[in-house]
Amino acid sequence: MDTIIEVKDLRREYVTYKGTIRKKEEVVEAVRGIDFTVNRGEIFGLLGQNGAGKTTTIKMLTTLLAPTSGTCKVFGYDTFGQEKQIRKRINFIFGGEMGVYRRLSGRDNLRYFANLYLMDTAERENRINKILELVELTDAADRLAETYSKGMIQRLQIARGLINNPEIIFMDEPTVGLDPLGAHMLRDIIRKLRDEGKTVLLTTHYLPEVEELCDRIVILNHGEIVARGTPDEIKGDAATLEDAYIALIKGDAS
Ligand SMILES: Nc1ncnc2c1ncn2[C@@H]1O[C@H](COP(=O)(O)OP(=O)(O)O)[C@@H](O)[C@H]1O
Ligand SMILES: [Mg+2]
Fold it and tell me: Does domain 1-89+167-176+189-254 have CATH number 3.40.50.300?
């Protein structure tokens, strides 16, 4: 099996200062020594409550945030120090963000982002057509993005995240705020990406999504891994994955 993400004893602290006169230092241990690997072609889920450390982990994996300590490797390269070797080959989508120009059409949005990568015009137009097809926006491609529904905007974000044909796509809560149909379409797209051989690492706290999509997951709680495995393995003898999840999260708190 081809391991393309490797995380070992990874830690990240945030230091903040409180008060105005006598500044008091406060350290938040957002990620407290986690280990996992992701294989090429997997849909891998990072699960956990708000504040569990999911976004911090994704930011370290996508070269946007330096680890405090530990190993964080993508394609065998350090995400901090060797980020140049990684960036061209990955992309990411942070759910809920509005990285879309509303006064441009969907197609022109994609052209704009394509131009940030070096691509000739024919290659760019081909790629954009292919991606529009994948995210089912072909018919709406030449309408202004401001006329799009939330689900369409989210699909356009995914399209944007595919513009450099990344081998790994990181998605932080991709279905947050979507209605059931929007979320369903998004899950279809994620499966199509896997069928194309892409690796997807996503975070969510929506359990049916995990059960439906993810090959393997880790559950984070207060910055630590409290469970790992296939959704079935984690479910174990519990009636539902949700029951198993709640027990794990509560068990850790008591
Ligand atoms: N920039 C920051 N400065 C200080 N604390 C932060 C910052 N970002 C996140 N945190 C804290 O780190 C912890 C983990 O946050 P985060 O990684 O965003 O979790 P999640 O994505 O699972 O909700 C939380 O306690 C959060 O308040
Ligand atoms: Mg988050």
Answer: yes
Distance, CA of 190 to CA of 158 (rounded, Å)? 9
Q: Which two tokens stand for residue 36?
A: 């996992």
Tell me, in angstroms, the distance from the centre of ligand 1 to residue 53's CA.
Answer: 6
Does the global pTM surpass 0.90? yes
Q: What is the pLDDT of residues 192-250, one digit of tens each?
A: 999 999 999 999 888 888 998 999 999 999 999 999 999 999 999 999 999 999 999 98
pLDDT of 92 strictly over 90: yes
Q: Would you list the domain boundaries of the chain?
A: 1-89+167-176+189-254, 96-165
- Please classify residue 37 by burial: count the beta carbons closer than 10 Å to its beta carbon, then call 0-12 exposed, 13-18 middle and 19+ buried: middle
State which ligand 1 atom lies nearest to the alpha carbon of 50.
Answer: 23
All residues at 6 or more sequence positions from 239 whose CB lies less than 8 Å from its CB, including other chains: none
Query: Rounded distance, CA 158 to CA 169, Å?
Result: 9
Q: How far is the CA of 52 from the centre of ligand 2 (A)?
A: 8
b/e map 211-246, b = 16+ CB within 10 Å: bebbebbbbbbbbbbbbeeebeebbeeeeebeebbe
Number of neighbouring beta carbons within 10 Å of residue 74: 28
| Residue 23: Cβ within 10 Å count | 10
> Is the per-residue pLDDT at 21 higher than 90?
no
